[in-house]
Amino acid sequence: MPGSKAERRDDAIDRGEGSRSALWLLLPSATLYVVTFVIPLAIVIVFSFASYRAGVTTLDLSLDNYRAIFHDGVTFGVFAHTIRLAIVITAACLVVGYPVAIAMRRARPRGRLVLLVLIVSPLLTSVIVRNVAWLLILGRTGLLNRALLDLGLVTAPLRLMYNDLGVVVAVVHVYLSFMILPIFASLSAIEPSIEESAMSLGAPAWRTFLQVTLPLSLPGIVAGSTIVFILAMGIYLTPVIMGGNFVVTVPMVITDLVHNQFNWANASALAVVLLFVIGAAASALNALGRRGRVPS
Amino acid sequence: MMERAEYRRGRLVWFLTALTLIFLVAPLVVLLMQSFTAESYLAFPPTSYGMRWYRHIFSDNEWQRAILLSLAIAATVTPLSLGFGTAAALALDRGPLRGRRAFYTVLISPMILPGVVLGLGILRVFLWLDLTDRFIGFALAHLTITVPYAVITVGASLASFDRSAEEAARSLGASPWRAVWHVTLPMIRPGLVGGGIFAFITSFDEFIITYFLATYHLTLPIQIFNSLSYQLDPSIAAVSGLTIMITALLTTVLVFRGQVASGGRVLR
Amino acid sequence: MTAVSLEGVAKRFGPVLAVDGISLAIAKGEFVTLLGPSGCGKTTTLRLIAGFLRPSEGRIAMNGRHIESLPPHRREIGLVFQSFALFPHMTVADNVAFGLRMRGVAGEERRRRVGDALDLVRLVGLAESYPRQLSGGQQQRVALARALVIRPQLLLLDEPFGALDPQLREHLQQELKTLQKKLRLTTLFVTHDQAEAMLLSDRIAIMNRGKLEQIGWPRDIYEQPRSRFVAEFMGRSNLLHGKVTAIENGFAQVEAGTLTLEIPLEKARTGESVTLLIRPERVRLRRGPAVEGIGRCGGVVDSVFYLGSSLTYKVALADGTLLQATQSNTGEEGASGIEQGMAVQVEILQQACFSLKGDEAG
Lengths: 296, 268, 362
Known about the structure:
The complex is a heterotrimer of chains A (296), B (268) and C (362).
Chain A: H1 5-14, H2 19-23, H3 27-47, E1 51-53, E2 56-58, H4 64-71, H5 73-106, H6 109-120, H7 127-138, H8 143-150, H9 164-188, H10 192-200, H11 205-216, H12 218-233, H13 237-243, H14 250-261, H15 264-291
Antiparallel strand pairs in A: 1-2
Chain B: H1 2-35, H2 52-59, H3 61-94, H4 100-112, H5 115-129, H6 135-159, H7 164-171, H8 176-187, H9 189-205, H10 208-213, H11 220-230, H12 234-261
Helix pairs in contact in B: 1-12, 2-12, 3-6, 3-9, 3-11, 4-6, 6-9, 7-8, 9-12
Chain C: E1 2-13, E2 16-27, E3 31-35, H1 42-50, E4 57-62, E5 65-66, E6 77-80, H2 92-102, H3 107-120, H4 136-148, E7 154-158, H5 166-183, E8 187-191, H6 194-200, E9 203-208, E10 211-216, H7 218-223, H8 228-234, E11 238-248, E12 251-256, E13 259-264, E14 273-278, E15 283-287, E16 296-306, E17 310-317, E18 322-328, H9 333-336, E19 343-348, E20 353-356
Parallel strand pairs in C: 3-8, 3-9, 6-7, 7-8
Antiparallel strand pairs in C: 1-2, 1-4, 4-5, 9-10, 11-12, 11-14, 12-13, 14-20, 15-19, 16-17, 16-19, 17-18
Helix pairs in contact in C: 2-3, 2-4, 3-4
């Protein structure tokens, strides 16, 4: 009988899939993840309903923490600010990164390799190291200000740090490669003959780009933006170092609540809402990507 | 007519790319140069050069301990994450089709979700298990965020793997798992090496989750962070320079290994 | 003695029936080719025999033992792929030794057998090289040696020469044939190349859309195809439709347009429609005035194709039918003197005609 259980199992075996026996290989990772991922996440959710009073957290079932987030102007403001920062960072990565992806596509294999190494280089250093480097460049007595002063372009050092600008610059620095690589992959999948057809039909280069290349690279744009947005929502170290006390993000608040106040309740609620925002953004971007996708 | 426009746009793209590349690389170059200063304060560009601060961090107890701890954790976690990750990647590649997507998403989630959230949860659980501020605690936490890299790189290698060599092995008398061990795994070595290097670097550079867990035993990133407030001298630059050099060395290995193993077809 | 037998073997992939009830018996030491166009199910059949697929129906037996539920590594088969499938991370010697390693053959015996296998395929001196250092032909020889060294009961080859140049291909075809005869190895060969099949096989099994159309000696299949598909797959053919006008002593007179042909045709009735198959090499052309008669008529040469070793002519008959005629390029007046536009005498030998069954005539 076609489609029977035995037949479907045989079909799977035919594809080289060892069905049951292969799944045992998931056991090590599964065990690890339960202890260090699944349970911790569950705990966070549980604690988001807990109560915090005078330094003590008690397990409870209250929505106070969530209410606090939405009714407390300060906390809500921090959330809004974090989201705004993440959007700016994502947009900046997109604008700056797209030309690089194009360049990578046009380069010969050798050149491509060099580009890849250079693009990925910030990734391979620690967050902290990168921020130290930016400190040296953007600080009041840093490289950029000293150069501007020496050249007489400004009379006083510019405030390039301890504000949103410093944070955005430092974060874009590291997350740029996460935007460039998916876009490059998407561009590479476009057959040159498609663009050539457009041009032979009379579309100048810029129009071919806008109406053919750009739309076809949408999957890469969506993938890159999703990754960068999610990562940008989670920044802690960079705003601490580059923003001083002037830039506050949700991860910073969470860390402070736990480290200094042992306030698990509010911290967990913030974490859950953070995850929600990330999930919503990812779904929205995914839907956007699917709408613009060319039927294959 | 069209060619000229194309040419102009081509130059624009390359110009922008060059600017961006400078943007990407300059800070690291600045840092490296700064690390070789012979002065006792941070000032760029250095007026004199020397190995003074590298010698300092290697003789300073606190820095030594931090460097060794980070190296030890990374060295322990890397082979483990490769083992766990390769096993998981094989399970996904050879297992039933149903649920594959879901499993994959779960497996790579620790890499994508904010470290803050993970740190929060892991800290709470490890407090109960008495694993905070201990080597094994750090290792387990790092393992969780490095396994995704192995799953991704090994998974990609397996997906593009031509099974006929494996089938040839099976026809010659190798059972399915023997065939994987003798033929498939050696043939996807670039994926394994890549995953291992990403794992090492990720663990070595990890900050936020370790920050939640550590109190007295500090890894290198945490040590650097602390010293930003009370010890702003070129030793920070030297230690940062050290991490850059370690990861640069590993990346070069990765790139050359990858090129050689796939016959130079990495980026066609 | 039957080495391999398939009984009613079928394979379904979801709604698609890739192999539809194949029954086949291969004798020990026989060279059988599965021939057919892409998608006909020949590779699927090979993979069923190798053990990478399980049959949806039917049984497969090797030397009397049923093997459908046996995994590949327990069937005594040797497999050669079109892509060679060599292990890139092992030397030639290690590649060839792999099967022996799996069987626990070690040391001196292993070395000796590897050396013998390499000698057999004429690849001496390359034992320590890596596959990427070898040419395509050399790599295929390694693949062959690797399959042969384990002394398999059955050798399976899946379009092994498809990736090689024509000259190299011919060379290796000859070598394979010689080797196979010498070792008396039961062999199943899969290809879509009809010439290759004719050259190598003791018997050819033609497949189409999952079914076995015809199996037999190369000569029988070429000269007595049982269906239009087989006829057209095995070579070029002229198809003429006609009606039986008279029957006498097992011979029938068929009127097909301008031509009247007499062919052996039993169990036919007057007035019945038939389709006749005539191979181009059996159509004779002669310069000169046309003489009408049985198997004879006049025509005008429509086009001439010079193919080097032969010439192909398209001749238009009085009723508009285009007949294809092929002749060897012997350089003689009679053949090479024929040019486009010329009026010629068309002659079809009596034994050259062959009728196709009504329903398969298309």
